[in-house]
Amino acid sequence: MLVKNFFKGGAKVPHFKNTAECETVKMEVPEKVRIPMLQHIGAPCEPCVKKGDTVRVGQIIGNSDKYISSPIHSSVSGTVTDVAPMLYAGGIYVTTVEIKTDGNQELYEGIKPPSFSNSNEFVSAIRESGLVGLGGAGFPAHVKLSPPSGKKIDTLIINAAECEPYITSDYREIIENSWNVISGINIIMEVLEIDNVLIGIEDNKPEAIKEMTRVAETDDKINVVKLKSRYPQGAEKMLIYATTGRKVPPGKLPADVGVIVMNVNSVSFISEYTKTGMPLIKKRITVDGPSVKRPANVEALIGTPISEVFNFCGGFGIVPKKILMGGPMMGIAQFTLDTPVLKHTNALLAFDETKAVLPKEQACIRCGRCVKACPMNLLPLQLNNNTIKENIEELNKYHVMDCIECGSCAYVCPAKINLVQSIRLGKAQVKQAAAKGGK
Amino acid sequence: MVLDLVIPTAIIGGIGLLSGLGLSIASKKFEVKVDERVGMVREVLPGANCGACGQTGCDAFAEAVVEGKCKSNACPVGGQEVADKIGEILGIKAEASVAKVARVMCSGTYESCKQKYEYKGIEDCAAASTLFGGPSACTYGCVGLGNCVRACPFNAIVLIDGLARVIESRCKACEMCVASCPKKIIRMIPKSNEYTVACSSLDKGAVVRKNCNVGCIGCGKCSKVCQYSAIEVQGTLAKINAEACVNCGECMKVCPTKAIKKYKCEL
């Protein structure tokens, strides 16, 4: 075990890993699932089923011919009751397939373990599985696993840092399925010819470090790296620096420094998939927060309405004021409990009024704490000012597009200025200006 | 004694004479010819530097007009009056310009349109729109956080009950608000048109009804009653053709949701 570099900046956030010892409980099949055609970064899928069709578990219900995209599978067996647009978090409408389940969970006949002999076949099999990065961002895994030609990948980094408070879904994967993780790693190592694997785990999860070290003991190519607990340790660029000491230049990808980063859940899924051929139809979710009666780690089918997930955990003890999909630092607030569980949902958190209300913004006292906290070495206060002024030139000068939206700046700000929210807007302004200029 | 006075005076005077000569030569040699008409055009412009003409300000516009890069009626703030004056200065016939006014194609206030969540983020329509299309139940309507209010150089837009309203007497048609609105619901309409469909929702009628009391449900009553075929229902949204409309007001009378309005906002 090694303790490696320590990235600059970030924020010390409380851990609240209340559900760490909660074993994963499987949720029953819901009556109805809603599966949106966009559950990844990239092009949305086109539905290939229509109203009235019967579908089975694992059947492809949406696909796209674009490269950066990932097929969507049915998580249940039943009848399609509706194919209609549904409002999505980004404020856009996404075609959503609604399926009424029959409860039999019949398997689709086409499901069989994939066979592959070279990396190309492996990558297309991964695409077929519908795997996206399960850490939270949802980047299609097959794109990650096919580095541009000419770029030699020498290191595979397994992301088990799980730096967001509350979330324990990666931790549970290690504790419950450590051998799956190892076999998934072995498959990727073999196919992509990688000789060095580093598993990054924060030091607030000693059990996970112990478990991974135990199962990886026999293989000297796989090493567990103990990381200091600091948010955002699990961000790709921070993790690469912390484990290998390599810095990904602005605007470049991990492949440019010879690295692939995969979430621990993703590699574990790859191992399962090669054994059974079952595509990505379920997800482990941490359900927690002061409002939830029985916090738990729940394995839910994709498309399950979050209301059912909360009901499964005993419902709400205190009336929730804010419900987050994802962690408290980067999660997205939801306005309805009809929202379905998505491929990359890793937590559902419900907060009562005392925790949900944001403190009032005050004037900047120019203390520079946001500058210190920014892991990307940006100047959040300058970006905020230039966003208010809509000064695209200055925003670019201060590298607004390098912001990873981790929220450390807003977290540490003593004046409680909504820095990250403002910078996100600034990024949108720059993108808009670029689109206008390109016309 | 006399020399003590004469010599310095002569030296200073000589230097002055030499520099003067140099300057006068330089001014002849490096003279930048400025068209005097630029100054004259600049005089008649409103001087708001709003940039609505597409130039960086009134100075740049004056230059562009004289050079023929801009049309004489390109200043929307000045309107016909300024266009005529510019035409006079340049000795050309001014092109006709239609006086326009900005109108918010939404009438969803806090009372009439449901809110789907309480928004606590930064006061910016674009930022709020990125979270499920904004706090209002209708994803097409006014967000009500005032991007247009801040963009308007003439203080012609006010926010009342979560809806942006244009004070028409102040509106100079510079179109700054049109560009600032993330929902693209502010449109430029000829000032002579009194009636507007104050809704932009592309939702189906039933959904509009559920979300908002004053939305257009696309029932088509207005287009049937209009004798001048000035209203067309496109999809689920009625649209008034500004050229054909004669301001009879029949459409407003039959509209079941009162989405068609005689636009008026004065303070």
From TrEMBL, chain A:
Localisation: Cell membrane
Protein name: Ion-translocating oxidoreductase complex subunit C
Domain of life, per lineage: Bacteria
Binding site for [4Fe-4S] cluster 2: C374, C403, C406, C409
Record family assignment: Belongs to the 4Fe4S bacterial-type ferredoxin family. RnfC subfamily.
Signal sequence interval, chain numbering: none
Keywords: 4Fe-4S, Cell membrane, Electron transport, Iron, Iron-sulfur, Membrane, Metal-binding, Repeat, Translocase, Transport
The species this protein was found in: Acetivibrio straminisolvens JCM 21531
Positions of the 4Fe-4S ferredoxin-type domain: 355-384, 394-422
A Gene Ontology BP annotation from the UniProt entry: electron transport chain
Binding sites annotated in the UniProt record for [4Fe-4S] cluster 1: C364, C367, C370, C413
SUPFAM superfamilies hit by this protein: alpha-helical ferredoxin (SSF46548), Nqo1 FMN-binding domain-like (SSF142019)
The keyword Metal-binding belongs to this UniProt entry's keyword annotation: yes
Automatic annotation (TrEMBL), chain B:
EC number per UniProt: 7.-.-.-
Keywords recorded for this protein, A-Z: 4Fe-4S, Cell membrane, Electron transport, Iron, Iron-sulfur, Membrane, Metal-binding, Repeat, Translocase, Transmembrane, Transmembrane helix, Transport
GO biological process: electron transport chain
Pfam families in UniProt: Fer4_7 (PF12838), FeS (PF04060)
Regions crossing the membrane: 6-27
Cellular component annotations (GO), alphabetically ordered: plasma membrane
Keyword Metal-binding in annotation: yes
Protein's UniProt name: Ion-translocating oxidoreductase complex subunit B
Similarity remark: Belongs to the 4Fe4S bacterial-type ferredoxin family. RnfB subfamily.
Native organism: Acetivibrio straminisolvens JCM 21531
Cofactor(s) needed: [4Fe-4S] cluster
Keyword Protease set for record: no
Region (Hydrophobic), start-end ranges: 1-27
Intracellular or extracellular location(s): Cell membrane
CDD domains according to UniProt: MtMvhB_like
